[in-house]
Amino acid sequence: MNTQKYGIGVDLGGTKIATALIDSEGRVLARTSCLTEAQEGVEKVLERMYKTVEDVLLEAGIELNEIAGIGIGSPGPLDSKTGIVHSAPNLGWKNVPLGDLFRQRFQVPIYVGNDANLAGLGEKWLGAGKNVGSLLYLTVSTGIGGGIIIDGKIHTGSHDIAGEVGHIIVKRDGPLCGCGSRGCLEAIASGTAIAREAKAGIARGESPLLAKLAGDGEPNAKLVGEAARNGDPFSTKLLEDAFTYLGLGIVSLLNVLDPEMVVIGGGVSNLDDLLFDPVRRVVKENLGTSPLGDVPIVKAELGADVGVLGAAMLVVAQN
Ligand SMILES: [Zn+2]
Hints:
alpha/beta, Nucleotidyltransferase, domain 5, 2 domains, five-stranded mixed beta sheet, 10 helices
């Protein structure tokens, strides 16, 4: 790591842009955020992103020539080498040359990465994986994404697709996934999948408690967790099933990657033991006689900061 220069991370999300300036130890010296307001168009969003960068420089009292670069985390698919965001449906972006635009504006090295990959990088350098070199990161939220970190760096693969753990197929003829396949992990164990099954269960009259908790609204994974903690058999089984498949997916990934640690983040990971117990049990059942059975499976530590810190580490970890 470069010991003198600073790095800036910009986390471009569907609702919020978060930006931070960190030193080579990962300490945050300045931070800011604003709403994305993607409906106003690409140029307006870019202007807002530029402004957050200028704001953190000003706040930290650091000149542009003192920073080692700017790391940007964006929804994908994207090309991390050219910095082109091929498509970000949440933002309405298509083929935006994000890297080049930032380079023209700031004349410093610009690094662009997929948000889940950067979250993995953040956890490796500043979060749960601080003391390991390689880890597998999974984010379980509306979808399931991931990042593979090897020797402290993101493994992007040859098409920037490595780490798309949500689309490994764990159930033949399972539920249809947004990607077009059936039985993907994301179609079974994501927050969206759990909400879908909860809604169907309520419609069948299988869980009066969940129906009561959801009221006039839609059920979500958090409510299913609440019902499970209150002894609701339907909710308990729904989560057990979903996270058993998550565990099976992780068994396969452990066999392929042999990481030092598995870190699970994203909103659904806040179900804590309701998620981690079945996952760890399935891993033990299937890998109990292998060293892989002892690989720690832990909760992410950086919370909502994971994106912006990961983006900033993309700069610092290159230097
Ligand atoms: Zn899929």
